[in-house]
Amino acid sequence: MSGPRVDAKVVLLGKEYVGKTSLVERYVHQRFLVGPYQNTIGAAFVAKVIAVGDRAVTLGIWDTAGSERYEAMSRIYYRGARAAIVCYDLTDGSSFERAKFWVNELQTFEENCRIYLCGTKSDLLEEDRRRRGVDFHDVQDYADEIKAELFETSSKTGQSVDELFQKVAEDYVRFTAFQLMTEEKGGIDLSQKSSPYFYSCCHH
Ligand SMILES: Nc1nc2c(ncn2[C@@H]2O[C@H](COP(=O)(O)OP(=O)(O)OP(=O)(O)O)[C@@H](O)[C@H]2O)c(=O)[nH]1
């Protein structure tokens, strides 16, 4: 891969237990961890380089804690994000209401942040359709209204996980990187852009 390197800040938001950490695990480490659920405390950070055409895009992914206890902290992590993956659990209607809360926040405070709605745990619906707690058409209408992309993923099987992050990276190159270049006089050398958030710390 040649060409300039681009760094995109991506934040994952959503109610606790919807599967944000599992989504990152699947995407970055191609694995699905079984065992007792461990909630994220604060936030966790991971970076992954992804190819978009001849570019290497480094996605800096912030996995925030879903617990409302950490709500104020999650606000810190979406600052300056160019993409937000707002997750809800396809089997849990209340998690979709929480997703709407985060969408409203982003629309109010981060208008340059592109929004990706992500319905998680689609494998549970494969097992039993009656477990769907969020109507697909309602979410599709909502996604159209807020101009968001919509994905239904499974971190257990890997369904649509790579596609989701690939779309985030492609949109970043297509819309945001060029916007940044034209904003700065004479353009910028993207390979020289630093990523301050790489130095931040995280834990699960
Ligand atoms: N069947 C199934 N279970 C999943 C999937 N993704 C996550 N889970 C399970 O859902 C539970 C919560 O997953 P996490 O990834 O820890 O959820 P989270 O959104 O990061 O939770 P917080 O850190 O509290 O915000 C765990 O028991 C996971 O094993 C999935 O795609 N399919």
TrEMBL record:
Similarity remark: Belongs to the small GTPase superfamily. Rab family.
Pfam families in alphabetical order: Ras
GO cellular component: autophagosome membrane; cytoplasmic vesicle; cytosol; perinuclear region of cytoplasm; spindle
Protein localization: Cytoplasm, Cytoskeleton, Spindle; Cytoplasm, Cytosol; Cytoplasm, Perinuclear region; Cytoplasmic vesicle, Autophagosome membrane
Catalytic activity, reaction form: GTP + H2O = GDP + phosphate + H(+)
Organism: Alligator mississippiensis (American alligator)
GO biological process, one term: protein transport
Top-level taxon: Eukaryota
A GO MF term: metal ion binding
Function of the molecule: The small GTPases Rab are key regulators of intracellular membrane trafficking, from the formation of transport vesicles to their fusion with membranes. Rabs cycle between an inactive GDP-bound form and an active GTP-bound form that is able to recruit to membranes different sets of downstream effectors directly responsible for vesicle formation, movement, tethering and fusion. RAB24 is an atypical RAB protein that presents low GTPase activity and thereby exists predominantly in the GTP-bound active state. RAB24 is required for the clearance of late autophagic vacuoles under basal conditions.
Keyword field contains Metal-binding: yes
Entries under PROSITE patterns matching the protein: RAB, RAS
SMART domains, sorted: RAB (SM00175), RAS (SM00173), RHO (SM00174)
InterPro entries given in the database record: P-loop_NTPase, Rab24, Small_GTP-bd, Small_GTPase
EC number per UniProt: 3.6.5.2
Assembly notes: Interacts with ZFYVE20. Does not interact with the GDP dissociation inhibitors ARHGDIA and ARHGDIB.
The protein's name in its UniProt record: Ras-related protein Rab-24
Presence of keyword Cytoplasm: yes
Membrane topology: Lipid-anchor
